[in-house]
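BUG: 3D viewer hangs when loading the predicted structure for this chain

Environment: internal workstation, default settings.
Expected: structure renders.
Actual: progress bar stalls at 90%.

Input used:
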Amino acid sequence: MSDTIDYGNLMHDAMRSLIRNVLLDVADNGLPGAHHFFITFDTAHPDAELADWLSDRYPGEMTVVMQHWYDNLEVTNDGFSITLNFGDAPEPLYIPYDAIRTFVDPSVEFGLRFEQQEEDGIKGTTVTKDTPLPQTDESELEVEEAPSKAAEIVSLDSFRKT
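Structure tokens produced before the viewer hung:
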């Protein structure tokens, strides 16, 4: 038994579960209203699956947009697969939840940001406030103009011990 409660990893699991539940609902019912997602993920994650030309073009991270057109959304306990359109070329992706760096729904000013921090060999997750919306390469993705306000990010920093 540990001498401390690992709040960082517990929050990590809770936030990934939130994303999973949202995507499960979208898989069953579609995107409601004006909801859409900017999802930034680590393209070098060992379990991420994407076309070679995409990983070559985005060797560190990539932001995808789930909005007008997507297909084959399948949600599992470890990640999700989806087919998205890149310049009129549909491409399948598999994104593990552990590879996600940001998850933003600008239609309701909601966002999560995951930061990996090395402290005493333990990786934790922090959620910060005032994170700007991820930038996308508009030549690759068809994106409607995002609202000018940044998403409201849940802040847990005030509960951290220093």
